[in-house]
Write a structure and sequence with these properties.
Keywords: Signal. The protein contains 3 helices and 6 strands, in the order H-E-E-E-E-H-E-H-E. With 101 residues, the protein is α/β, with parallel strands linked by helices.
Length: 101
């Protein structure tokens, strides 16, 4: 009986290790044709490219949500969101953003 009790936590931990990591990425919803809102969903060239890339990364469960650009900048500056696209590279204006991949 004790052997089974020892194995149970190990089995439970192995299931947790294989679960996908949830990631939410936000996109500017007013930059057609690159990223924009259509029928309450973000779409566009950048969004389609990101969806294809993330579909090949099974370790991550990525959700893409729309956000107005200024709000997105504020949220990322205050560390409330993880990622924002499109990445307009302005290092001097936005030193809090990381542009490297």
């Amino acid at each position: 009986m004790k052997k089974y009790l020892v194995c149970l936590p190990a089995i439970a931990l192995s299931f947790g290790a294989s679960a996908a990591t949830n990631v939410t990425i936000y996109g500017d919803d007013s930059y057609p044709p690159y990223s924009y809102s259509e029928s309450g969903r973000i779409t566009g060239i950048y969004t389609v490219i990101l969806e294809r890339i993330f579909s090949k990364m099974p370790a991550y469960n990525v959700t893409i949500k729309e956000i107005p650009w200024k709000r997105g900048l504020s949220e990322i500056e205050n560390s409330k969101i993880f990622a924002l696209y499109p990445p307009y590279k302005r290092i001097e204006q936005r030193p809090y953003m990381e542009y490297e991949m």
